[in-house]
Amino acid sequence: MSATEIRYINLYESEEKVYNRRITGFFQRLRRYVSAPLMLGFLLMPWLVIDGRPAMLFDLPARQFNILWVTFSPQDGVYLAWLLIISAFLLFTVTVMVGRVWCGFTCPQTIWTQMFMWAEFLCEGDRNKRIKLDSQKWSAEKFFRKAAKHGIWIAISLVTALTFVGYFTPIRDLVAGMFTFELDITAVFWILFFTGATYGNAGFMREQVCKYMCPYARFQAVMYDQDTLAVWYNKERGEKRGPRKMTEDYKAQGLGDCIDCSWCVQVCPVNIDIREGLQAECIDCGLCIDACDSVMEKMNYPLGLISFTTEGAVDKKKVKIMRPRVLGYGFLLLIMVGTFVYSLATRMPLLVEVIRDRGTQMYRITDGNVSNVYNLKLENLDRKTHVYDVSVSGNYEFEIQGYKAPPVTEGEIINLPVRVVTKRSELKGEKNTITFKVVARENPEVVVSRSTTFIGPSK
Amino acid sequence: MSTFWSCWIVVLTLTNLVLLFWILMANRRRAVVANENDTGEAKTTGHVYDGIEEYDNPLPKWWFGLFLATFIFTAGYLVAYPGLGLWKGMLGWTSHNQLEGEQTKAQATYDSTFGEFAKTPIDQLAKNPEAMKMGSRLFLNNCAVCHGSDAGGFFGFPNLTDKDWLYGGSPERIKETITLGRQALMPAWGPIIGEANVSNVVEFVLKRAGKEHDEAKAALGETVFSTNCAACHGADGKGNQQVGAPNLTDDVWLYGAATPEELPAVLRQTVRNGRGGVMPTHAQTLKAERIHLLAAYVYSLSLDDAK
Questions:
Q1: CA nearest B300: which of B107, B117, B112?
Q2: B61-80 and B3-26 helices cross at what angle (nearest 10)?
Q3: How far apart are CA B250 and CA B233, in angstroms?
Q4: Long-range contacts of B266-269 (CB under 8 A, 24+ apart)
Q5: How far apart are CA A222 and CA B241, in angstroms?
Q6: Element (DSSP H or E) covering residue A379
Q7: What is the 3-state secondary structure (H, E, C) of B47-115?
Q8: Which of chain A's ends, N or C, has fewer CB atoms near its CB within 10 Å?
Q9: Omega into A240 within 30° of 0, i.e. cis?
Q10: A178, A307, A322: which is closest to A234 by C-alpha?
């Protein structure tokens, strides 16, 4: 053993700040085309009105969830569960086929980060200027540039927060209340909270979220196989990398096509070197492809040193698109989407609960008749007012007494006490099954049946 | 909680916190002995699976920051809230006073609604659909157990939807009935008038109610009725709502029979053994404005154009 010295390793390390180089190219444009409509949808959705209701409003106090043409109630939670399962499987299927494109092109974290980077570029200039600016002493210019950047960031965050809170409380009141200072404390809290969260996430956390917080990043690797489309560096063509003079024949020097300009690293939002091979942090955004292609163009080399391809293709194997995994996920997805659409289409906008009176006496016998009293709870989940007709059937001639059908407005729950009567001489057993059928008067397709017991005397 | 268990919790909680804090701080830096063979390559944890190794990279600093923030929050929480044994917390919060606060708030909300209703006369209130919806809830919670959800009554429990009232169906009388309750007493006449007269008087009552009866017995029963029963039920048998004596001529029977054939036997039992009915008082269990609303609901049930 030679001379030793004691060194210290910090187990909690502050992350190196990533200075991204700005790049334009096919994939950067593609993301813009994909994300712009999504952004627009996010911003406009709470303002839209369908059937006189907000197109998207999760009204928690009223427990009504307006989604486009349908109003859901908490009892419809199963649809939400299904939707989440379908989304998960959709993500799996997409990941198996084309890798982590969700992250690169549609994930809010990426899109907001890109917007914030744009503001950064606007105020502080591109990579080198920013590095220089950060190393400078504070000056009026530096202050102005930084202030402008944070101003834009906060503005974007505030709009984001307002829009997001607008999904839970009518956005018109929210925006109006913001200008008249009449917002209640809860709304103010959440607006500030989401402003702060957006500012922190897109401004400072950025790639840290993708690397450490995002659960998808944790398990996406298991869905990759050798035919999954991902960003790959063509090692065979690129190596050995190194700088060269345009005038000399680099191949004679044993160099590959990679000129080692490190642009691919500089543009990477998660700051990885794709030339080291596929990495868990890679969000498949394709920025390194744009960067490399622009360099290849300048060098008059063929494009695609870094490209979207598969591990199999890199290894010169045959690419199989239809593989058991894809087929399996696709098949499951098809079944689930089908079931979901079917159950949604046949969803009954009416909830019926029947509770038999369990009071002092279960039934009453008078004048040769046996009666049971039931309390019907009807909840109208439709967007129209309905009058419901109730009928009852069973083994015997049952008759309903005391039923007056009132109109039930949308979202309203009413109690309808009814007395069901039958002839005692007909009734054979103690416990009998009867079925209530509730039909909307104007729309016979809205019909719900509920079975319950009718108690008779014990002889 | 005894002092022992309080101490136990305090010591356990604080020791854990201190221990965790120490682990966090003690692991901020680690000394390594560097030698010439140290190439500066990232260390691995030594876990290998399928040839894949796990890097032993340091955690990001914000992670450490979050831990610290959690400790600060914990300290603040334990000072403000009763989390440490018998310590009451600076805010004086208890689950009990939270419940009380929420109940008071709910009362205030409902009292204002009920207060509005309480100012409205019952006969007007009975035509207010919003009020009647609330009334029906009150009825289901307080009255349906005896009178049924439909208020149609059961054996011994009056039907509130017909227009037959034992104590009167005016808004004031209904409210009085709910507030103070009623004690009904039909004395047992069997020992006084004898079994033969029980039978006779029942035939007379059946005659007045327009039912099938024995004419000869009914004639005998008339005398029995006027000496013994008329005092409460009236000479004409139409009852007296002041004392709650039912009208015997309308074929509405509080203690009715399963079949028309059984009616005479049931009536004989009533006369022979008497009946006692109790409507409990609600003055203690329900606030006055709720009783007001409830009275309006019950009143609305017998209105022709109800709802």
A1: B117
A2: 160
A3: 13
A4: B267/B202, B267/B205, B267/B206, B268/B198, B268/B199, B268/B202
A5: 83
A6: strand A369-380
A7: EEECCEEEECCCEEHHHHHHHHHHHHHHHHHHHHCCCCCCCCCCCCCCHHHHHHHHHHHHHHHHHHHHH
A8: C
A9: yes
A10: A307
Q: Which residues pair with A6 in a beta bridge?
A: B33
- For the record, the structure tokens of A209 come out as 């979220």
Q: CB neighbours of B23 closer than 8 A, spacing ≥ 6?
A: none
Q: What is the pLDDT of residues B57-95, one digit of tens each?
A: 778 888 899 999 999 999 999 999 998 888 888 998 999
DSSP line for A5-41:
EEEEEESEEPPPPP-PPP--SHHHHHHHHHHHHHHHH
Q: Say if B55 is an interface residue toward chain A (CB within 8 Å).
A: no
Contact B34 A6 (CB under 8 A): yes
Per the CB < 8 A criterion, the answer to whether B30 and A7 are in contact is no
Could you report the predicted ipTM of this complex, rounded to two decimals?
0.73
Locate tokens 């009718």: which residue?
Answer: A454
Nearest to B80 by CA among B67, B70, B92, B95: B92
pLDDT tens digits, one per residue of B233-276: 999 999 999 999 999 998 889 998 888 888 999 999 999 999 99
Residue A364 structure tokens: 């009453």
B306 close contact with A: CB closer than 8 A: yes
Amino acid at A301: Y
B144 Cα to chain A: minimum distance (Å): 7
What stretch of H or E contains B278?
strand B275-279
- For the beta carbon of residue B263, count every other beta carbon within 10 angstroms: 22
Shortest CA distance from A419: residue in chain B: B150
What are the tokens at A367? 């004048």
Distance CA A280, CA A218 (A): 8
Under a CB-based contact definition with an 8 Å cutoff, are residues B155 and B255 in contact? yes
Q: Give, in order, the Cα–Cα distances in Å from B165 to each of A451, B158, B161, B174, B269.
A: 35, 8, 10, 9, 22
Q: In angstroms, rounded to a whole number, what is the distance separating the alpha carbons of residues A19 and B88?
A: 51
- Report CB contact under 8 Å: B148, A419: yes
User: Distance between CA atoms of A371 and B201, rounded to whole angstroms?
Assistant: 30
Residues in CB range of A297: below 8 A, 6 or more apart:
A303
